[in-house]
Amino acid sequence: MTAPQESRPRQLGRFSQDASNALELAKHEARKLGQNHVGTEHILLALTLSGNATFTRPNEALENHGVTHDRVRKEVLPRGLVKSGFFTGEIDLAPRARKIVEEGAPAKANQRKSPTVDIEDLIEALKEEKEAAAAKILQDIAPEF
Prior knowledge:
This protein is an all-alpha fold. It is built from seven helices and two strands, in the order αβαααβααα.
């Protein structure tokens, strides 16, 4: 018997290497926080790591507004978005995160007339999904962003 596969979001073929890396890092962030799903907060946490070697270029938009991994993590913890332990099972996108990955970010790329979805498109889509944890965290950390 084979293990079930994590469902792959539509549109991922359009994602740049950096955007794909961000989604993989988001899974890791979710697992570290004991979650069995990737939420918008995990995508945001991953995007704040864009200055590391996983990405081809740093994400200056977040950095310039003081949105750092430490600050986002400090916002995630008191919101009850953490469980104990490291989750090791299958992990999939939560509904709002899936909407951002499958619809919001590709729409942003389309607006830029780009065939490729990049990390900037993920950020803009996160900001626009006002009820998502990531949008609320961004509003708290950098209201002018």
